[in-house]
Amino acid sequence: MIRRILPHPALSAMLVVVWMLLVNELTFGALFLALVFGILTPLITSRFWPDRPKVRFGPAMIGYFSIVLFDVIVANFQVAWLILSRRNRDLRAQWLVIPLELRSPEAITALAGTISLTPGTVSCDISACGRALLVHAIDAADPEAEIARIKSRYEARLLKVFA
Q1: What domains appear along the chain, each with residue ranges and CATH number?
Q2: Which of 2, 4, 17, 159 has the most CB atoms around it within 10 Å of its CB?
């Protein structure tokens, strides 16, 4: 019964939170509209999601978000140092082809978004077969080590989050 009303509870919760953040005030009307959109949007779009991804909420997701937050903060300082130290003439920009073990489109999108959120790297394309991700790194002295780092820090954790 609850799955009929809330086919995607995480999406509903996220929509309510985002709506409230956008409105930027806690009123009954704003909360009511957030709940209406948070419930109706997944109900209307659920037929477009026949293969809903299995997401594990808990320690795996908390660990993933912690690593991403830490890496974003550290990468901001690293990129700022690269720019401000006038070492930018010595940058070793590289195109990295990352082979993927992830298969779900949602998990691949989460990985691509994570890579793009981290300053100094941006995900650019995914192969037609969905088995490789093309990433540009602003400074990668050892491309193989950078690929291994992305796979171990992000992809391995996403494999645990997306069961």
Answers
A1: 2-48 (no CATH), 59-161 (3.30.70)
A2: 159
